[in-house]
Amino acid sequence: MSSLTLSKGSNLSLTKADPGLTRAMVGLGWDPRTTAGEMFDLDASALLVSARGRVRSNDDFIFYNQLESKDGSVVHQGDNRTGEGEGDDEQILIDLTKIAPEIEKVVIVVSIDQAEARHQNFGMVRGAFCRVVNDSTAQEVVRYDLTEDAASETCMIFAEIYRHGNEWKFRAVGQGYASGLHGVATDYGIVLD
């Protein structure tokens, strides 16, 4: 089985592409351009979203300070603060069999830490990608390479994994947010201090 590469806005049935997929490893990668010396720290996070288009509570926001959902369906593998090296910079494990029935989709987000203070944005990021790997077989199922210019945006929804009938599907989103992670989180119902 060979992996498929999607373009922005397209989707793929994960269930049809890999019928044995139950544990999906979502790998996210990027390479920051050379900066004026400021550290460049991108962070991956996931939002568990119901049919209302919102989270049920702040417990549905999985990120570097809350690494696991209460039901164990989504587990963040930890913060990579530099983005150096090849391959995935951060990974999120999603056990599709454990996701509560009322959850319609898992939204995968990448944000730039302290973007405003450091004057950084996604226009300074290259080689960004999101991929889904079958955690049991280590086979890559689908990949989305972000190519859009997002010069003013400090946060981006990379992809969604969502229910469609009895299937799980992957959508390549590539939607930028100039309001950062705060804007994305509040749009989905997270209550921030």
Automatic annotation (TrEMBL):
<feature type="domain" description="TerD">
    <location>
        <begin position="4"/>
        <end position="188"/>
    </location>
</feature>
<dbReference type="InterPro" id="IPR051324">
    <property type="entry name" value="Stress/Tellurium_Resist"/>
</dbReference>
<dbReference type="InterPro" id="IPR003325">
    <property type="entry name" value="TerD"/>
</dbReference>
<comment type="similarity">
    <text>Belongs to the CAPAB/TerDEXZ family.</text>
</comment>
<dbReference type="Pfam" id="PF02342">
    <property type="entry name" value="TerD"/>
</dbReference>
<protein>
    <submittedName>
        <fullName>TerD family protein</fullName>
    </submittedName>
</protein>
